[in-house]
Specification:
single chain; about 375 residues; 12 helices; about 35% helix; binds S-adenosyl-L-homocysteine
Length: about 375
């Protein structure tokens, strides 16, 4: 906030920041409409949108002064009415394994986390879609927080832009990028915030800006069946499904959403997922919980189901990341290995995921919990 204020403290009197409209997160159509309202002539709108889009999403500027293809008068006018925002970084942590986690504060004081996971051949940004979550999955620490609200398109795109600021990734390099992939696997259920997630991902995929390919974006759902077809048709990114169990009684317990949409319905929606073919397999996430879902019978049933529904699939086995008071333990390494081998031997890829960023509570299911706890103990102190 303060840095924005400094950048914009030109000679022109400025409207208070809160009254300025954020250009980040607007679709091209909304941007054109916003510019039209300021008096930009109709026939110039397309060109102006193209120019501003390039500065905002390709160059990553946050100040209108830097938009040198636009006249000084118009830049001054734009900076009086609009802003180009970023979420405020509260803390930035780096794990011993190179994973980074940012705690971000939004305009209304709510907080979310974003995680960057560097690997040898790629770098994955894990983006949040909601503040908190409604799903209450029993093994997920994020799920012990209540849902506060959906994130706006600006707040979702803003996580990507903030991470690119931090990693020094402007202007958008076609090669040698650090953020090569995005997963909607942070806090929240993205299919419960469909419209905003859709708008944000379309901005991220737009070829004149950040230009991340849809093949490098994965949306993860706990199984919001009625939204899955639209996800494929309207967003058209890779799908991951948090399956975690192959029997309805167990899944009812660990993913309560299963009480609404049973495994059979979920797998039918996966089978029908637009574009689900071998080139675009569906990822099934499977958290390994000791004595709950980790037997060879479970592995066997998993293979049977994926075959019966004829789903081009890969399975990600996630060793359970513990948290204080969690009602589960992680499966033994030998059990995880046996499960993985069984599935692999039947022709379905089932790697065991190495937990990343555990020392900074950045691993799956651990998001925000630490910061919330810290805040509580700070206020208690
Ligand atoms: N709501 C969406 C997006 C969240 S993705 C979904 O459920 O898919 C977060 C992933 O981490 C999910 O697969 C979730 O099941 C998994 N996860 C949550 N808590 C975990 C834990 N303690 N250990 C390992 N994985 C966990």
């Amino acid at each position: 906030m303060s840095s924005l204020a400094i950048e914009q403290s030109e000679s022109m009197p400025s409207a208070p920041l809160a009254e300025k409209r954020d250009l980040v997160g607007l679709s091209r159509e909304e941007l054109a409409a916003a510019l039209g309202e300021t008096g930009v002539p109709e026939k110039a709108l397309n060109m102006r949108v193209r120019q501003i889009w390039h500065w905002v999403y390709y160059r990553g500027v946050t100040s209108f002064d830097l938009m040198t293809t636009i006249s000084k008068d118009m830049r001054d006018d734009l900076s009086e009415r609009f802003r180009i925002s970023r979420p405020e970084i509260v803390t930035a942590q780096v794990s011993s394994d190179g994973t980074r986690k940012w705690l971000l504060r939004l305009a209304d004081g709510q907080e979310v986390e974003t995680v960057f996971i560097p690997e040898e051949d790629r770098g994955t940004l894990c983006v949040s879609s909601q503040v908190g979550c409604t799903l209450n999955c029993r093994f997920c620490h994020t799920g012990t927080q209540r849902l506060v609200r959906n994130l706006t398109p600006a707040e979702i795109v803003g996580q990507v832009m903030m991470a690119r600021d931090e990693l020094g990734e402007w202007p958008s390099p076609p090669d040698g990028r650090q953020i090569t992939n995005i997963v909607m696997m942070g806090m929240g259920e993205p299919l419960y915030n469909f419209d905003n997630v859709k708008q944000a991902l379309h901005i991220v995929m737009d070829g004149d800006g950040i230009a991340l390919s849809k093949r490098r974006i994965t949306l993860s759902t706990a199984g919001v069946v009625p939204m899955m077809a639209r996800c494929g048709e309207e967003i058209d990114v890779n799908l991951a499904v948090s399956l975690h169990a192959v029997r309805n009684d167990i899944r009812d317990e660990i993913v309560p959403l299963n009480r609404k949409y049973k495994i059979e319905e979920l797998l039918e929606a996966c089978r029908a997922y637009p574009g689900a073919k071998n080139a675009r397999r569906i990822t099934f996430e499977y958290v390994m919980l000791k004595d709950r879902n980790d037997s060879l019978d479970d592995a066997k049933e998993l293979v049977r189901l994926l075959r019966a529904y004829d789903i081009p699939a890969k399975v990600n086995l996630i060793p359970f990341n513990p948290w204080p008071g969690a009602p589960y333990e992680c499966s033994d390494p030998a059990t995880v290995k046996a499960f993985s081998d069984y599935v692999f031997e039947r022709g379905i890829s089932a790697p065991v995921r190495t937990p990343r960023g555990q020392d900074i509570m950045a691993a799956c299911g651990q998001l925000k919990s630490a910061s919330v706890k810290l805040r509580r103990s700070e206020t208690a102190a």
